[in-house]
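To whoever is covering the structure queue this week,

Two jobs came back overnight. Logging them here so there's a record in the thread.

Job A:
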Amino acid sequence: YSELVATGHVTRGRLGVVIQGMDEDLAKAVGLDRARGALVEDVESGGPAERAGIKSGDVLLAVDGQTVGRSEDLPRMVAAHHPGTQVKLTVWHDKQTRDVGATLVAIEEKAERGARSESGPSVEPGARSSALGLTVAEKDGRVVVVGVSSDGPADGKLRPGDAIEEMNHQPVISADDLSTKIRAAAADKPLLLRVRRGGTSRYVAIDRASR
């Protein structure tokens, strides 16, 4: 309150991450016992999180020992601290828990971003089917979804126009590469895909054993 009176506003800290919610399939894919914490979708270049060694695919479990129950809790927990504060983050990384320190920076007032296009890229013919119930094609060096089987494991998870960038933290460089990676993966564990849709990337877990 005293800060608000003196300056007319309250300065809040930020971490420099883009996060997404966890579900049971994502938790299983990253090796957690249940859906909890905030999954790091992307890390701002040069921001506090990157300097602390946090990577996309990590899960933030606690801030200063306070559990992050849901992803929606994290922004409020971080913003409760002033810029320049060092917070201790409990991070799930490569199926292990570790604590790292991150020094927060100020939340900046940013101009409103223009609406992102949701239209998928145009795709050339020559699509290939995969074991996920997907039809994919290669376009501009990317592996793009052109069809999703209604009864396949990817139904409800992926849609035409999605570009598959990674599988289990490994880059997907071609349709054949995707098929090879799927065949090599353990059938009883969900596949963790990093997918670009509408200008942003997010993680999707697909459990083949559930179908």
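Job B:
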Amino acid sequence: MKNGRTKTALLVVDVQNDVVGNAYQRDAVVGNIARLVEEARQKGVPVVWVQHHDDWMKQDSEKWQIVPELKPQGGEPVIHKTFGDSFAQTSLEAELERLDVGELMLCGAQSDACITATLYGSLYRGYPVTLVQDAHTTEDSGFNGQEYPGERIVNWVNRNAAYTRLPGIGSRITTTEEAFKPGD
């Protein structure tokens, strides 16, 4: 845990209409995130939401809205960001300090962009991270003439999260089913 803080928070990143509209296993992943949010609320685990906006996804537009299956409750922080890393030029660090959060459980989209950036950003800032391997997604993508199916990208990000370590800190993976079981 970071700085002796005692809580873990569920960090729900960019589960927005435009971000997950064409995502790999969109409905199953959103369903898993909804389950995680409900379990977190039942167990008194803070839920922190993140919403991205930029030139292609304007704040307050329909594209920008969190998907209709998920709704932040009153009192749950919603962090607005313009960079992949959810900490970059946002109030996330201050919210986690206010909530006494020293560890993160991460879910959302897109696996190869904001999820990866937030995972590494968390570790660099001293937060151990658990990535919920069946509760993040991305769309098919291409780069340098190569095509990458969403499934392959998700699996690659899971692999990296299972093995990423920095001095004294690391990330790990779990499943929606195991996320809130005792001992995790």
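Note for Job B: The first helix runs from residue 17 to 20.

Please reply-all if you pick these up so we don't duplicate work.
Q.
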